[in-house]
Amino acid sequence: MASWELLDEKGESELHKSRLLNVEEKPFKRITKRLSSISAIVSSAIQSDPAAQNGQTTSSAQLQEDLTFDFAAFDSSIARFQFLHDANVRERQRYEADKQRILAECQAARENNARLREQLEDAKATLARRKKFDELAEKILSNRLLRPREDQFAALEKLEEECKELERESETYSGTWKERRDQFNRIMEEGMLLRRQIRDEKEEVDRREGMNEGGEDEAEEQRGGEPSATGTPRPDGDGTSNETPQPTISVDAPTPSVSSPRPDRLQQLSAEGTGSRAASRASTREPSRTRLREGSGSETGEDVDMEDTRHEEGEEEDGEDKSGAGNGEKMEVDN
């Protein structure tokens, strides 16, 4: 079927010539011809005599009837033209509606084609993925080293049970860790309290030792100021008589030799021993106090300093006891 196209000017002219213009313009030509004949009759009647007018009366009536018929035919022709025009308008409107409908259908068809094209592309991509998956599945399933599906399901169930067990253990571990953390915090608090108590007790012991050492130093100073009565003979009685005391000789005591020190020499040795003991105590106490001051800033080294101080104090006391015992033995021997 050939497509319909608009005609050019030459084609339109040929179309107008080929139409039935003669048929359509026939009523108009008849009216024109009738009017021209009427004008000729009127002009001839004016020029003719009155006798000829009686013969033309019948012809005028016939002319009037012919004019009426001609105008009726022209009126019908005009009505037909109007009907054709109205029909053409309606047809053009119908053609326009059909045109819009066809254009809408074409647009919908284009959109549908685009959508179908997209779906086709998606289907092609899906098909390619499925083919790739089939190839991979074929490679996997063709491997004879793989275990059956039932064994795999059993292994998966076992793994799930192990995961649940691990989750329960993690919950238990979290509770245990919380309890241990609380215990550790309590232990740390108790340790802090214990360190404070030890520090307080150590300060109290140092204070008491300082007081005792101060009293001993005062007593030694007082003893050092008084005359030593080590070699002075004492009376046998209550000391109220004015008699000169006589030295008592012990049978068991050894006889003093020439090399034995005199009583004034014994007093000087005793004073020197006392001063050396006091100096040793003071020198030992000063480092211990220095260590205590240094250890008061750091809590971690307090226990070690206390143990060292106590150990040194114990060594000093042992040394003093030993020196005192040696001096006593020497004095007894000299006496």
From TrEMBL:
Residues 92-176 form a coiled coil. It is found in: Nucleus. Residues 239-249 have a biased composition (Polar residues). GO terms for cellular component: THO complex part of transcription export complex. It comes from the Eukaryota. Keywords: Coiled coil, Nucleus. Residues 198-335 are annotated as: Disordered. Residues 198-211, 283-296 have a biased composition (Basic and acidic residues). Its main location: nucleus. GO terms for biological process: mRNA processing. InterPro entries: THOC7/Mft1. This is Tho complex subunit 7/Mft1p. It comes from Trichoderma citrinoviride. The lineage of its organism: Eukaryota, Fungi, Dikarya, Ascomycota, Pezizomycotina.
